[in-house]
Amino acid sequence: MAQGIFISFEGIDGAGKSSHVDALAQALRGQGRTVTVTREPGGTPLAEKLRALALHEPMDPLTEALLMFAARRDHLQQVIAPALDRGEVVLCDRFTDATFAYQGGGRGFDEAVLAQLERWVQQRPDGTLRQPDLTLLFEIAPTVAAQRLASARLPDRFESQPVAFFEAVAQGYARRVQGAPGRFACIAGDQPREAVWAAVQAAVRGRGWL
Ligand SMILES: Nc1ncnc2c1ncn2[C@@H]1O[C@H](COP(=O)(O)OP(=O)(O)O)[C@@H](O)[C@H]1O
Ligand SMILES: Cc1cn([C@H]2C[C@H](O)[C@@H](COP(=O)(O)OP(=O)(O)O)O2)c(=O)[nH]c1=O
């Protein structure tokens, strides 16, 4: 059976990505596809426990990075790889680009070490690296995202960071785009919701998946 389709959603907190994950799942299911909607950190019982720790307990940047990759390994093994091997679609709210952006850009953790962990965690039996087929990167000025979040929800360890942290996170994302431009579709997140949704659909349609 053909390999499935792996799409990740990325952006700084408040960029407005989450509401489009379910909408895209519905659109793809409408085409008869089987779709798994999942998220990182999380997506399995173990990884959700690691998520609760990573989002709420104080820890140093190496511990934080290792927890993200530990959660990712379990998620890949238990959920993502089996679904893709069955030829299904996986929509994942954040994946490894978030680690490079938040732990690399935001926390300043060594990106060469992150790249090593990425290889260990995402290597397939044939030696190639598992990556999303498409990453939708929602781009927005950190000040606008912060205004949105101020009225939206109680902040976790990341969301409570100052605007300068999110500027560094955005730079981390930009470096990932430079490293693999063909994998990314950059979506202007500061548009009205309908325009953002149209851009999401256009990116997926451009790949022939909608
Ligand atoms: N295009 C948009 N314009 C204005 N507000 C938005 C838009 N998209 C999302 N929001 C609001 O911004 C906040 C953050 O959105 P959310 O989808 O949770 O962002 P993310 O998942 O990227 O952190 C929510 O209160 C949401 O209702
Ligand atoms: C996947 C991942 C997320 N994160 C952070 C980014 C987010 O602030 C947080 C959780 O992401 P997210 O699910 O987008 O948060 P919410 O449900 O509140 O919208 O985890 C990392 O720091 N590194 C990672 O590798």
Automatic annotation (TrEMBL):
Q: What is its EC number?
A: 2.7.4.9
Single GO molecular function: dTMP kinase activity
Task: Return the Pfam families for the record.
Answer: Thymidylate_kin
Supply the alphabetized keyword list. ATP-binding, Kinase, Nucleotide biosynthesis, Nucleotide-binding, Transferase
Q: Superkingdom of the source?
A: Bacteria
Which Gene3D superfamilies does this chain map to? P-loop containing nucleotide triphosphate hydrolases
UniProt cross-references to CDD domains, sorted A to Z: TMPK (cd01672)
Which positions in this protein are listed as binding ATP? 11-18
Domain Thymidylate kinase-like: from-to ranges: 9-196
Q: What class of enzyme is it?
A: transferase
Per the entry, what this protein does is: Phosphorylation of dTMP to form dTDP in both de novo and salvage pathways of dTTP synthesis.
- What protein family does this chain belong to? Belongs to the thymidylate kinase family.
Protein name, entry field: Thymidylate kinase
GN (gene name): tmk
